[in-house]
User: Which sequence fits this backbone?
């Protein structure tokens, strides 16, 4: 099952593609110096496979690579940062 994660900037979300189909996404609002993650979702057929973690990890690394701070309004993103201290310095309260 080929998995790909892409930044669909037109839709303001990172998308997780499985066999070319959207299986999950992480919505964001892009600001000049930060990205606000608002919602993360994996479709029911793909739950329980660790895909949300792969998606959010990729989205956070992409944000770090572009020098953006992260505002984790999405509870999943906030918990992911809490569990992965390598991303703690990216987090911004607002």
Assistant:
């Amino acid at each position: 099952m080929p998995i790909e994660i892409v930044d669909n900037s037109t839709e303001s979300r990172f998308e997780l593609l499985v066999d070319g189909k959207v299986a999950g996404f992480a919505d964001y609002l892009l600001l000049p110096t930060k990205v606000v993650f608002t919602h993360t979702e994996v479709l029911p057929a793909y739950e329980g496979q660790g895909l949300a973690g792969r998606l959010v990890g990729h989205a956070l690394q992409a944000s770090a690579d572009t020098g953006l701070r992260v505002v984790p309004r999405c509870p999943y993103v906030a918990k992911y940062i809490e569990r992965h201290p390598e991303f703690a310095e990216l987090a911004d309260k607002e």
Notes: Residues 51-65 form the longest helix (15 residues). DSSP finds two helices and five strands in the chain. The chain has a mean pLDDT of 95.
